[in-house]
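Aim 2, interim progress: modelling of the zinc ion-bound target.
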Amino acid sequence: MSADGINLLRTKVFDKSKWMQLPRDVVIGHDVLEQIPAVCEDLTLGESVLIISGDQTRDVAGKRVETLLSGFYDVATLTAGGDPLETIKKAEAAAVEAGFVIGVGGGRVIDTAKIAAYNADRHFISVPTAASHDGIASSRASVPTADGNVSLAAEPPIAVIADTGIIASAPHRLLASGCADIIANHTAILDWELSHRLRGEPISEYALTLSRMTAEILFRNADLIKPHSEESAWIVTKALFSSGVAMSIAGSSRPASGGEHKFAHALDRLAPNMGLHGEKCGIGTIITMYLHGGDWKAIRDSLRKIGAPTTPAEIGVDDETAVEALLAARTIRPERFTILDMGLTRESARSLVKMLYRE
Ligand SMILES: [Zn+2]
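Predicted structure of the complex, ligand included:
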């Protein structure tokens, strides 16, 4: 028998491979901001640093980071604000001149720093001042444009430093929104499994299990989530981080983003500036959980307990816009198959909104 013939008789050659990017140092807890010089030293990232923060977050933590690092590094600073794309360009130019980049702030600042670091090929350290969504440790960033938010490739953080004291002092609405973003994992996973069964989409059991476990732990601890408590900040920040790791393992946002996220992105376009990312996802999760035949009331009740909105009206969106968003959701990233692709009509969307978003 020829060599080719023998090869044909063998079972399929193993050809799988995977490249995961995870942070190297993760420091979460009380007063950990003070650890930033030690973290930077541990990582040996260069002699100069660009610190990006926001108008308010610079006072909250940015200045402190500048002071802590100024004895050890050449420190350049940039305050993010104004037109997001202009800010990213400025940040990118400044990042090229620096050894590494630190983002100190909320979602917008972290995303700016992450994109600038990616484009300038620099390492990035994430210092979140709020726990409002699971982007604090992920490799994607969302940028608002005239056509709604676009998701861009970005530098995953080499380190995350999350000070629970700072996060607890942020407005509770931000923390509640972060919780809702994690609760959304419940249906993101169901959508992923549905797409796997129906269309053969590859699934990562590790990513899926981690994402599910993260959502379940938060779900069980919903009673502990209270405004301005460091314990709450601790629970939510760990969960957001864990959700980010699930995405890193999967190599995509699939474990934490399904139909409820597509609904939220549709709302970004149809009702710009209404509600926070996690809030919109939480509201969407109620409907997608109902459609999956799951315990949508438990989702709604845990959102309520945490202090997150459960109806479009609570974020200033009328029912008809919510219906439009449910229908438009399937046009966003159409390759990502979800329960909202399973024959939803305008009529059914209307009755869902009416039935599930009653006070
Ligand atoms: Zn999200």
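The mean pLDDT is 93. The pocket of zinc ion is lined by residues 133-134, 181, 257, 261, 277, 281 (CB under 6 Å).
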